[in-house]
Fold:
Amino acid sequence: MKTAKTFFILAFVLLLGAREVNAQLAFFDFTVNEPLPALDFAGFIVTNDLTNTPEVFRVIIQPEGVNVFLKGSMRWRDVGQTSFVDLVSFETIPFTSRTFTNRQLGTGDLRVKGSPNVNSVAIENNLAKGKPVGEYELTLELYYANGTLFNTVQRRLTFFNPSQTLNLIQPLQGASFDPGTVIATWTSLTGVNSYKIRANVRTNPNQSLEDALAQGNPLINDKTVGSVTTVNLRTLLDREWQGGNEVVVQVFANIPGPGGGTNVFSPIVNFYVNASSNASLQAQNTALQQLISQLPPAILNQLGPYLTNTNLQLTGIVREDGSMLSTTELTQILNYLQMNPESIVNITITPNN
Structure:
């Protein structure tokens, strides 16, 4: 009798095992909640304690009650980069199939096996950005408990960081500058490869800054300056500004992404260009006359026909790139040349027509 009872129990166990082996999965997928920019990156990090994180993704496995396990991985491509880097990979212990969210990982039989493989450097780079930024590739593989792969699902998610703002640090609103040097500096944006600058003259105080910037014939017409965050606006001019001008300026950039990306604009800032000082010009022209008198005879002979003009004036020095030296720079050069006239080895004269 005892032998028969043992045989019955063993047969019952084998029957249950056979039913489990024959259980077939029908559907496997996962979805990601939106809006994506509002999500916390912690919701994507796979550990055994995600109960207090936002609900980021939902895994759907049908039918319920089949013994399975998951393998997953996440890779990241930062904005402006061409290749993905590994962030994390993991494997769960076997669990019974059902629908669940990332917040349920670490509860009941939904647990990560051992410790996930984590790229600590890449994770820190993500966390430093404050919000998910760039493109993430999530891959989930569903296996039967015996190790047979059922299906693989992959999603690519693109994030933008809404906290990024572009601000001009200088010039300060309403400040005045020498015509030759107006330094613009602005905050940097993650993922931007190039910035552009637009500047224009504000013709009257009743004109809005927006209207002044948008009107025709700008001083700087959407000039691309690359990835730098500091430039001398004087070197970018498409036409000359004049002493006494009120100028408006704006920096803008495009953050690459789907549909052409996102344009980010700085607030418009206005500043003033100082009128040249008559006293300064007089001092510079006096220094020029003194400098000429000290030139070597060979160079003086070149200048002979022009020195008869008593109205000879110095109006500025132009660099090779077309930009003009500031008043301060011009005075410093003249003072140096007065002290060191031997530094002048040749003069090329191009008469105005």
Notes: Confidence is low (pLDDT under 50) at residues 1-21, 36-43. The chain has three domains: 21-159, 168-273, 278-343.
